[in-house]
Write a structure and sequence with these properties.
The protein is built from eight helices and twelve strands. A hairpin with a 7-residue loop joins strand 2 and strand 3 (about 90-95). Helix 2 packs across helix 6 (about 195-210) and helix 5 (about 175-190) crosses helix 6. Helices cover about 35% and strands about 25% of the residues.
Length: about 300
């Protein structure tokens, strides 16, 4: 999900990710059966969550310029961001809120009204670092637990894996946007109709709002397209966004190649930490773990159905 481009120095006021990166890989905190740390400093988590939220806010702003028909809007809610991209789009929820500041019923009233105006169900992300008062308040208003994502992280250092030399990864310019749109649509199965329209407009907004942004993977041997991904850089933080492999190219290490190439691009840009989000326990998470990522926590989206 996450990406940058139109970034402002003030967005991460007070955050120093270099110090976090040093502690990320050297702590004596408990680990689980996979060797992954099971507890992380809350200040570090808050900084990461806010960076991801501000990243998608930038994409939302670009989307609102591209196509006003989606009624996209964003607004601050408590210490986080409400991002309402629009029906059929990928983010319609509150991000990084309730981590340090409590969420009030007045703020949830506002979320419900504005979600209704956009045409989406009100939703709110929570994780183990969310203040304990937030979940009961959401439950009392009818918000129910739904989908989950893992936040994965790794230090970018001299031990980062070398990229697969059989795969070439290129930054997509305006002339190749349609190629990237077709590739991600094929990879995710968004063949036609509303799903394809949403996929295309999100990609166009991300192309404007991210840096370096959209990436295509090609075979070095014959230049055929293998898949695509996104990379967004904010200060010394690299956000690895959604990765898609063409169905005909699956099982050939394309996803792994896109991970290693983005890590190298991030290292070359001076980044010290990489973040990625994925479904808990899925193939993407296993692949990230094989490339040195650890699971920081699992986020649950609570949604209030309009039915």
């Amino acid at each position: 999900m996450a990406s940058i481009g139109m970034r402002r120095p003030g967005d991460m006021a007070g955050a120093t990710f270099g110090g976090m990166s040093r502690s990320l890989g050297t702590s004596d905190e408990p680990v689980d059966g996979l060797g992954q740390r099971t507890r992380f400093d809350k200040a570090m988590v808050v900084g990461f969550e806010r960076a991801i939220a501000l990243d998608i806010v930038e994409v939302a702003r670009a989307l609102a310029i591209h196509d006003r028909s989606w009624k996209t809007e964003t607004f601050e809610l408590a210490d986080g961001q409400a991002v309402l991209l629009g029906p059929s789009l990928y983010v319609n929820r509150v991000l990084a809120a309730g981590l340090e500041t409590d969420v009030t019923d007045i703020q949830l009233d506002l979320l419900e009204r504005r979600s209704s105006a956009v045409g989406v169900e009100p939703a709110f992300e929570i994780n183990e670092h969310t203040l304990p008062s937030v979940a009961p308040r959401l439950a009392a208003r009818g918000f129910r637990a739904g989908g989950q994502t893992s936040l994965m992280s790794r230090v970018i250092d001299d031990h980062s894996p070398d990229p697969d030399r059989s795969v070439e990864v290129e930054v997509v310019g305006e002339s190749a946007l349609a190629v990237w749109q077709a590739t991600t649509a094929d990879g995710w199965g968004h063949g036609s109709g509303e799903a394809r329209r949403a996929s295309d407009v999100f990609a166009a907004a991300a192309a404007d709002a991210q840096s370096p942004g959209l990436l295509l993977a090609r075979s070095v041997l014959d230049r055929r397209i293998l898949g695509c991904a996104t990379l967004s850089i904010r200060d010394d933080l690299a956000l690895l966004g959604g990765t898609s492999t063409l169905p005909t190219e699956r099982g050939r290490g394309v996803h792994a190649a896109l991970i290693t190439h983005r890590l190298r691009m991030a290292a070359d840009a001076g980044c010290t930490i990489a973040l990625a989000q994925c479904a808990p326990g899925g193939g993407s998470e296993r692949n990230l773990v094989r490339h040195g990522f650890v699971r920081m926590h699992t986020t649950t989206t609570r949604t209030r159905s309009r039915k």
